Structures are given as structure tokens and as C-alpha cells.
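Worked problem 6 (solution included).
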Amino acid sequence: MNLDKIASDYRDNGFSLISGFCCEPGLDRIKSVARCFHCAWVQENRAFHDARAVNSAYLTSDKYLTDSERLVLFELIASKKLNKLVDALPFEVPAFMGTQLFFNPVNKRQRNYWHRDPQYHLSVDEQKQALAGPEVIHFRLALEDEPGIEVVPGSHKQWDTPEQLDIRLEQKGRKHSDDIPEGKKIVLKKGDLLVFSANMIHRGLYGLNRFAFDILVCESKPEFLEFVKPECLPKQPMFSSFENSTLFKNVITHKHVSQ
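Solution. The predicted structure is:
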């Protein structure tokens, strides 16, 4: 990994693609655990899954996975390789925020949609202010070949153009699935890792065998750590197998989680 280039790409564009970040057999273990979670999650959320779901969350909780299965995911998050990447990005005190799993919708006619992650809990003015930081960053590991995502480069620091805002918020007759001329498509191959800002304008691209595991890393700030579920953190005995436990320890310290 060329960490300087990754940092530069992220700083300028809001994303960076690391090809072949994770290889077999480690990748297959992660994929197997993700499949176990997905099957159990779908069984409990069948109506939502079949109607419109494109992602789920909280993979590292103990609701659907055994401790040994959870440990596979925790060891990836606590790996030296991932943490070197985290250290190269604009964090002061990085912390583990959560995990997500992305897949295709059941309805083949369901359209993908442009968004900024903060729009679901912040006002428009607050979304503008969020562009000044601090950061929340996605680390998306492709578990299968997939069409990837489409992003608007630079939008992690730049506010929407009038057309982009109308599309993203479905104003003035526009739909959030309309094409944005400035969009850039990023194809993901199995094992690739895409790093991108939660603040940037982006949308997932459905198709092929889309199946991707996201790790979210945030600053150790109360407004972010409030989203961290204690049951998604590793148990104390697990720490002995971690190469770098900083992301978890920062949550425990700043969220005051008892272990």
C-alpha cells in the first residue's frame, strides 16, 4: 500500500481504492461469517428485506453470530494492515463506530439513490457544517465482484450544486436516482477495499453478486460515539488476539464503556 498516495487521493477526492487489499483464505473466512449473519438477519427481517432493503448493520453484535465468528470480524478491524491505513487518514483519535453489510435489493426494478450519510439525522444547514469535519470514513471490503459505488469527487468538502441538491433531496421534480453528470463509477473486485467519506455524495450500484462488508471509523466525539452499540464491541478476553486494539480501546475510553 502506498499510504501517501492513499492519503493524498482521499484528501483531494474523498475516496481511495486499494486493489487486492484482502486475499484468501482470510477473505473467505470473512465472507463466510458475513453469510451466516446475512442468512439469520434476513430470516428475522424478511418483510423489510424483500420490500426494499439494500443493507443491514451491527454485524459484530452477538445477536446472530457466535463469539468465534465475531472474532473473525474483530481481527480484521484490529489488524495492523487496516490500522496503518486508518493512521494515514485525517483522524485525530480514531474509533470503531460500527459495521454494515451491503447487498442487492430483491426488487430488480429498485433504483439506487444519491445521498450523504448525515442527511438522515442532520438538517441541511448542519450537513453543510459537517463538511468542515470531523470525519466518519467507510472502509468497504468487497466480498464478491460487484459494480461498486458512484461518487461525486470532492463533495466530501464541497457543498452540492443546485442540481445535485435537487436530485439528492428530491426537489423540483427530481428523483434521487437521477444521474448526476459529475458522478464517477468505481468498480470493485473481490478483495478490494474502498475508503470513502460518509460526507460525500454517493450511491451504491446494484448488480452482479453485490456483497460488501463496511467498517465505519469515526473521531472519538460524543456525536459519533452515541451511535456505537456496546454489544457490538469485543469482550475483554478477545483483545489478546488483536494486532492493534486502538479503535476499540478509544471507544471504551471515550464512551466510558465497562468491560
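Discussion: The longest helix spans residues 26-44.
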